[in-house]
Design goal:
Blueprint lengths: L2 H10 L14 H4 L2 H21 L2 H21 L4 H21 L7 H19 L4 H9 L10 H30 L3 H10 L2 H27 L1
Length: 223
């Protein structure tokens, strides 16, 4: 056997199947890992801390400066421009609302109403017997599967979507209560505590529903 044919044999033996579980990205990895949590937390902490000692216009300026510095750092580290710039756009929108209303607590108002919208959409999809996670799974897999006809599959997506609804609902209730109480500091604490940790928990349930659905429906199609 020649060297060339040996080389081709080795290429043919290269595994092409799915990655082993140990090498698959976790939910935390897909959210940017611990660094992603830090990047999303720093602007919030800086805004609240600066607002304690500085005037509101100066607080806004400091927050924007920190956001720009973080964006440059993330781009230099080779992160995707969409993720890096997206964080800056979100910060700019939040401080823009604050500049418009003149109230520091309005830094969190977009997140509060976004949580309410997420709760309504997620719960509404379950009540309509079209749980959102199932709709997404079907779209990802070509949109051709009659997943709603399988009670087991739909029940799993009911659970996953209700879990997401519970996270959105908890965020809205707690933050709205603190917002009405004019507690800017505790709004920051709630944003951090109810942010990434709860998202990871809900994400794990969604991943569970996706994998069980793929095993059940794609396995049927293959047989």
């Amino acid at each position: 056997m020649t060297v060339t044919s040996q080389h081709h044999d080795l290429e043919d033996e290269t595994p092409t199947g799915p990655l082993p579980a140990a090498s698959r990205p976790t939910v935390l990895d897909q959210m940017g890992g611990p660094k992603g949590f830090v990047y999303s937390s720093v602007p919030v902490v800086v805004f609240v801390a600066a607002n304690t000692f500085l005037s509101l216009p100066v607080t806004i300026g400091v927050s924007v400066a920190v956001g720009l510095a973080l964006t440059v750092l993330r781009l230099v580290r080779g992160e995707r421009a969409v993720s890096a710039v997206g964080g800056l756009v979100g910060l700019a929108t939040a401080v823009g609302v604050v500049a418009w209303t003149g109230s520091a607590k309005d830094f969190f108002v977009i997140g509060i109403w976004a949580a309410l919208a997420g709760f309504v959409v997620a719960l509404g999809s379950v009540l309509a017997r079209r749980p959102l996670t199932g709709v997404v799974w079907n779209l990802v897999h070509g949109g051709t599967h009659d997943w709603r006809a399988d009670r087991t599959v739909r029940r799993r997506h009911d659970i996953a979507t209700l879990c997401a609804a519970a996270v959105f609902g908890a965020r809205f209730v707690v933050k709205e209560w603190l917002y009405l109480a004019d507690s800017t500091t505790w709004l920051a604490v709630a944003k951090l505590a109810l942010g990434t940790p709860l998202t990871i928990l809900a994400g794990l349930v969604v991943v569970w529903a996706f994998r069980r659905t793929s095993t059940r429906l794609l396995g049927k199609d293959a047989s």
